[in-house]
């Protein structure tokens, strides 16, 4: 399975390429008042508003630093039990490129502290943990960001 490698804090994570729509440079975001601090803002994607989540803040760490290798990763987000997909931006630091992970090497981490962090695999550079998009947003935040997500 091919994954996009990036960092949350100092640790490496991966997003399956099959779920990624595009990777963009860091853009200016419109702030969204009264949303959790991990909602970085709203971006304009060819006339369509797309909410952006700061993965570092979502994981309980300081905000992602605005560096030359910080990107906004646009994914097709689908809530658990929903057939509807939404464009969602993920603020990712230190985007390092693409890696190939053998699905047979993936193992459960044995730790369940953050719902959106999934299985792990090891390579020469250490551990890579997969981000599980379906578990990224709690229902109340989905309802704030996506008008038709209240029932999902």
Give an overview of the whole structure.
This protein has 152 residues and is mostly beta strands. Helix content is 7%, strand content 46%. The chain contains two helices and nine strands, in the order βββββαββββα. Strands 1, 2, 3, 4, 5, 6, 7, 8 and 9 form a nine-stranded mixed β-sheet that branches. The chain is globular, with a radius of gyration of 15 Å.
By DSSP, the count of extended strands is 9
SSE pattern, N- to C-terminal: EEEEEHEEEEH
Structural class: mainly beta
Low-confidence stretches: none
The N- to C-terminal Cα distance equals 28 Å
Radius of gyration in whole Å, from Cα?
A: 15 Å
Number of helices: 2
Shape call: globular
Q: What number is the mean pLDDT?
A: 88
Indicate the proportion of strand residues.
Answer: over 45%
Q: Helicity, in percent?
A: under 10%
User: What characterizes the major β-sheet?
Assistant: 9 strands, mixed
Offer a concise description of the structure.
With 152 residues, this protein is mainly β. It has helices at residues 55-58, 139-145, and strands at 2-8, 11-16, 20-25, 39-45, 48-54, 71-78, 85-100, 117-123, 126-131.
List descriptors:
152 residues, 7% helix, 9-stranded mixed β-sheet, mainly beta, single chain, 2 helices
Topology, element by element:
Layout: E1 2-8, E2 11-16, E3 20-25, E4 39-45, E5 48-54, H1 55-58, E6 71-78, E7 85-100, E8 117-123, E9 126-131, H2 139-145
Parallel strand pairs: 2-9, 5-7
Antiparallel strand pairs: 1-2, 1-7, 3-6, 4-5, 6-7, 8-9
